[in-house]
Amino acid sequence: MLVELRIRDYAVVEDLRLELGPGLNVLTGETGAGKSIIVGALGLLLGERASATVVRTGAERATVEAVFDVSNLPDVSRLLEEHGFRAEDGLLILRREVAAAGRNRAWVNGSPATAGAVGDLGTSLVDLHGQHEHQTLLRSKDQRAILDAFGGAEVVAARVAALHADVEAQRLALEEREARVRAIETRADFLRFQLEEIDGARVEPGEDAALEGEARRHEHAAELVQGAAAVHEGLYEGDDSVADRLAAVRRTLERLAAFDPDLADDVQRLDEALLTVEEVGRRAGDYASCVEHDPARLEHVRERLDKLFRLKRKYGPELADVLAAAQRVRAELSALDEADRDLGLLRRRIDEAASALQEAARELSRLRGTAAEGLGAAVEDVLPELGLVGASFEVRLNPHDVVTAGGAEGVEFLVSPNAGFDPMPLARIASGGELSRVMLALKSVLADVDRVPVLVFDEIDAGVGGVVASAVAEKLAEVASRHQVFVVTHLAQVASRGKQHLLVEKGAADGVTAASVRFLAGESRVEEIARMLGGDPDSATSRQHARELLGAASSGPRASGRGARRTRPVS
User: Fold this and answer.
1) Are 224 and 308 within one domain?
2) Is 97 helix (H, G, I), strand (E, B) or coil?
3) Which of 73, 185, 258, 523 counts the highest number of beta carbons within 10 A?
């Protein structure tokens, strides 16, 4: 519900605060008093393009702020969260500011927001009839949603949307997988060449280090033989070898140990040293006898090392990296085989999901077909009561080539305001009054399923009078029993049905045109109704007629004490 509307420095409005209540709120006043300016200011919160021309002369900026009670509106709460906001104590405050210099700003509950976010939230709360761009019933997706609600097809429609999203997600996954497969297939030959190159080399871990050692032995075979023989001779085999001299020293120390047992440990150490020297000497002799100088083997080792070097340069830098590269290539080629299997599985799943989507879409189409006939007939029955005699209304289902998230067809509301003319989309109705009355007929039929809580009607009484005026008033009161309705009217019949009656007056303050709004009750309301009836508001007859009209409307709840609070003249 729209709890409060605040307007400052907008057109001829200087400072205005409107407190609105549930049910039917009516706004009246002389022609040109500024009634539609208030509606236009509200339109800013519904996404209307802001222009610096709306800023009151002499002011720096125009501000429009609306306070809504959204405590019982879960859809709005979800939309708030989507935009990154939360309701505070069940209240939502939307604000837009238009600077004279051209800069525009917007806020949601005091936090900066885009004008688009404010517009999205505003249009979820307010349906303004009289300016096409703000009317939800002129948008195809909203017409579809309303038809589904009217026909009890919302659950099936949600299933269609979910299935469509599932099919699209799976198709996207299939496309991505196919792209990866194509990428792998494109380089599959190259991958196989790499794997054959590495596997064909029969690389062993640490092989390069071992071969490098072998190559050094072959390259220095002569030096190794000569040196090992010298070691053998000097340590063990030659005259006066280290082993012989160490043995003599050991014998001397052994004689001394016979005199001093403390030397026994040293004798043992010399025994160990002698054994080590003899062992090294013998091994050096064995080594010298087995070292081979094999030029053919050396050439083979060098060739092998060259091959390993080239592999390391391509896949390395180390031999372990070459082996790891082979593993990666195997995994990539294996993924190609797995991808082929996955593609088949994905295609089967898509076929199953698409089949379920088609079945759900057929059920939705059936429900919509029945609902379209019922809604069209119901609205058409109401139109003559609202002065649109001979008018026709049609809900047309336009089949799609493929099933979309919204089903197998688009939904379009068509109307012909006059007999003999082809029906046309609602947005193409030229007359604001006719469009508002068509909208009123729709709202009266859809009152139980329409989720937009606040309805604003402007120009609804254009060209209307007599019995039709009473019918319009009746329908507005009927819709107001389920929605909060704010209507700008010249009809006394409509004004008399309001739970709250607000009067717009224009005057002058310090030589500047000023508009103000005040709440009417009691005799002040009788006087305004008498004026609207076309008589002398001061005459007893006109006032009696006004009282009778108000009395006839008193079967509904009387106007409450809340209304517009005039802070000072508005200019």
Assistant:
1) yes
2) strand
3) 73
β-strands 407-416, 424-425 pairing = antiparallel
Amino acid at 503: L
| Ramachandran quadrant class, 29 (left: phi over 0; alpha: psi -120 to 50; beta: rest) | left
Q: For residue 487, give its domain range.
A: 2-131+423-565
Q: Please state, in angstroms and rounded to a whole number, the distance separating the CA atoms of residues 446 and 465.
A: 25
Dihedrals phi, psi of 55, to nearest 5 degrees: -70, 130
Spatial contact of 156 and 360, defined as CB atoms under 8 Å apart = yes
Which of 75, 78, 111, 79 has the alpha carbon at shortest distance from 93? 111
CA dist 263 to 1, 196, 243, 260, 266, Å?
112, 69, 21, 6, 5
- The verdict on residue 487 lying in a domain is yes
The helix or strand, by DSSP H or E, that contains position 68, with its residue range, turns out to be strand 61-69
Tokens of 535: 């008589």
CATH of the domain at 491: 3.40.50.300
CA–CA gap between residue 343 and residue 351 (Å, rounded): 12
Whole-model pTM?
0.62
318 or 159: which carries more pLDDT confidence? 159
Regarding beta strands 126-129 and 454-457, do their DSSP bridges make them parallel or antiparallel, or are they unpaired?
parallel
Chain segment 353-409, per-residue pLDDT in tens: 999 999 999 999 999 999 999 999 999 998 888 888 888 999 999 999 999 999 999
Q: How many domains does the chain have?
A: 2
CB count, 10 Å around CB of 506? 18
What is d(CA 379, CA 438) in angstroms, rounded to the nearest whole number? Answer: 8
- A 10 A CB-CB count for 280 gives 16
- Mean pLDDT score of the chain: 84
**Strand pairing partners for 485?**
24, 455
Q: What is the tens place of the pLDDT at every residue in 432-471?
A: 667 778 888 888 888 777 778 898 888 677 777 778 888 8
**Among residues 302, 332, 362, which one ends one of the domains?**
332
- Give the CA count within 13 Å in the CB-facing half-sphere of 272: 6
Both 20 and 120 in a single domain? yes
Assigned token pair, 364: 């939705």
Query: What pLDDT, on the 0 to 100 scale, is given for residue 565?
Result: 37
Length of the chain: 571
**Chain centroid offset of residue 208 CA:** 57
